Amino acid sequence: MFTENSSIFGPASASEAQVCALILGRDHGEYSEYDIRSVIIPTYYELCRPVGIDPVLPIAQMIHETGNLTSFWSQRPQRNPAGISVNGRKQPNEPAEKTNWAFNTQRGMWESGVSFASWRDDSIPAHIGRLLAYALPKGAENEAQRTAIERALRYRMLPDALRGSAPTLRQLGRAHNPTGQGWASPGTDYGAKIAAIARRIVETRP
Questions:
Q1: At what angle do helices 16-24 and 41-48 cross, to 10 degrees?
Q2: For the chain, what is the domain count?
Q3: pLDDT value at residue 63
Q4: In a domain, 4, yes or no
Q5: What does pTM read for this prediction?
Q6: Nearest to residue 179, comparing CAs of 193, 192, 163?
């Protein structure tokens, strides 16, 4: 069973139907059942399989980061699945250069972060490849993983120091990452929260 010390790698530990049942059982923002069952979740499974990731874990991270697809950054047109480049920078006034900024209607503030044109072709590939980059040192990836990482880092670069710095969920949190950086800040219980959601997915009846 998943813990904060789990890696992201492995076969799918739950079915797409189980994942969808968990997400659809709660408020899921503007996304329809079709969006979830036919686009978002199948794409995670499709992209995780060839790179060896258990799709339950990035999906659990997505659920945690987006409040089950209810957060501003996860809504269209942002479609940000995991707080990618949402770094806490915010301001009340419209920035002079609006690239990688969006007006958060939930908070009434301009916030920094990456928006994606589509879930299937942009945000989910960016999410999967970025997780791979955190998990695998440079040179440790196979060809499929390398291609996924290169694709993801076109959206948002990752410092070389962070490559391979998070082989477990726990180390995605800055508090536990050897570089002093991480996906989440401070992220003290970030990995534990992802693991808890993953366990709920596995226990869900479709």
A1: 150
A2: 1
A3: 98
A4: no
A5: 0.97
A6: 163
